[in-house]
Specification:
Elements (H helix, E strand, L loop, with lengths): L9 H29 L2 H6 L1 H16 L4 H27 L4 H9 L2 H4 L1 H36 L15 E3 L3 H32 L1 H20 L6 H5 L3 E6 L2 E6 L4 E2 L4 E2 H6 L6 H22 L7 H8 L8 H10 L7 H9 L4 H14 L7 H13 L3 H7 L2 E3 L5 E3 L1
Antiparallel strand pairs: 1-2, 2-3, 4-5, 6-7
Amino acid sequence: MELEWEQGRRSPHTAAALAGAFLGAALGADCFLAADYLIGGIPALLCGAAIAFWAVKGGVLFADRNSQAVVLLALFPTLLWGIFVNHLSFALTAAPGDPAGIQQAFLSPLFITGGAGYWFQLAGLSAASLGSWTTLSREVKKEQEFLKRAARPCQAPQEAPPADLELYLPKHAWIRPWLLQRRITQGLWLTVLFLLVWLPDLLGHEQVLFRALCGMGASFLVIASLPGPSRHILAARKVMYARKDGQLWLIAMQRIQDTVLHVRLSKLAQIWDRLPQSQRTRFKASIACGLLGMLYFHGLGTPQDYGRAVYYLERKQSDSYNDLLGLCYLLGYGCQQDVQRGRELLERGRDGRIRDYGLGMMYAEGLGIRENIGKGVEYLEKAAGAGYEPAKEAMTHYKKSWFGVWRRK
């Protein structure tokens, strides 16, 4: 059963998916021929998985949707190119460097004259391709299940998002042409690279250098004629901005996972227009709680208040700022001290400076474990070296004795 946003868009997406799948499978076939020329045998057969991989990825890229219908359309190009490239590889082996001989061998019934080796290679190539296609099909099924879960309404968040908080999400419809251009450019270069490996068998060794230079020059002109994709524009897929009280904050969504849907926030941002209002409100509230907790913890734009920091950080529905919440529990900032929970949250944190500072204080002060000032100072030195000011201040409370042992001043 298709989702509403997929209905009524079959014709243009079917054509685009087939075109992308054929081009992707052609790149995978090119990869197999290059591997067969260089190494041959079982390793080359495993490269048959590239045919299915690039066929599916090409169809998804051109159709701009990741669905089971697109993956199913990619199966035909996968099998077709697998049969074609297997036949061509035997023709190349029959008359290497002789274009006329290769053409004659290709048009001959190699499936009869090739013997058991022909069918063994075809079976291995097909098995690798179908195995890769099946794996990708399962991934797409999971993707569809996620989209269905994300489209369901959810309960209202515990803490409503502030009315003055604005979220700026990346516009994927605007970014997509740049991404498509980049992937096509990469595909062109890979195609030329693989062609240069097995062209000697097809064209003859005396023509390889000339044809290679022509191919490289033509591909360079094609790529140079396109406006180069901006690294900053493509990087915008993974970040969002939040504005509150006239201040703008950048949030790296790729590093934050939503604890309700169990996906990265960057994935939720990609389907923002398809989410129900309740999910959008929950998403916004989760971002707001994490951001407000961080602001109150550090005292940025507001008086420092550990109690309010813990209040907001407890209500976020993501794994962001676990290190800050863990530090509060470890040291008893704004809440009842809970060393065990603080350590667990710190170890799941993403800011290495705060994690090292918290672990350093835990060992140096003997919080929940046996005191080990030396090991604690090692963690504090790492945090201080990364520029974390509280760690630098904590280091002033310890000194090294004449015997090289760390102790309190």
